[in-house]
Structure formats: structure tokens, C-alpha cells
């Protein structure tokens, strides 16, 4: 729920994205997130599980 609230704030400020790439954290792979993305026409892409290289773009963006 917190993730979706944050996304709505971001969308209001920056516009609707076409694609969102996330890691495989439970908050990001939930049915609520999938439903949200489907409703708004957002392509939801997750990285390769247990693969730091599969998450490189996301991790670099967040400096983790």
C-alpha cells in the first residue's frame, strides 16, 4: 500500500511511466502492484532473482 501511495505521488509530479523496473522484493511483486500497473497500462519488469547483475540498473540508481 505504501508503494502504491508513493507511486501516485511520483506520477502526479512526473507523469505516467510506460515501464517500471524493480527488484523482486515482496512489496514490488505483489498482486496489488500488478493490478496497479495493469490498470494504468504500465509494463512491470522485475530483475533476475538472486542476481546482482540483473539488478544493476536499479541498484545503481539507488546507489546501493
From TrEMBL:
Membrane found in the keyword field: no
Protein name stated in the entry: POK18 protein
PROSITE patterns, A to Z: INTEGRASE (PS50994)
Taxonomic source organism: Halcyon senegalensis
UniProt keywords, alphabetically: Endonuclease, Hydrolase, Nuclease, Nucleotidyltransferase, RNA-directed DNA polymerase, Transferase
Annotated Pfam families: rve (PF00665)
Integrase catalytic domain residues: 1-64
Gene Ontology MF terms in the entry: endonuclease activity; hydrolase activity; RNA stem-loop binding; RNA-directed DNA polymerase activity
GO biological process, one term: DNA integration
Gene: Ervk18_0
Amino acid at each position: 500500500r505504501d508503494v502504491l501511495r508513493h507511486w501516485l505521488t511520483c506520477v502526479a509530479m512526473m507523469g505516467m511511466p510506460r515501464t517500471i523496473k524493480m527488484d523482486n522484493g515482496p512489496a514490488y511483486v505483489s498482486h496489488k502492484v500488478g493490478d496497479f500497473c495493469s490498470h494504468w497500462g504500465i509494463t512491470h519488469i522485475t530483475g533476475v532473482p538472486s542476481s546482482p547483475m540483473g539488478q544493476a540498473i536499479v541498484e545503481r540508481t539507488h546507489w546501493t
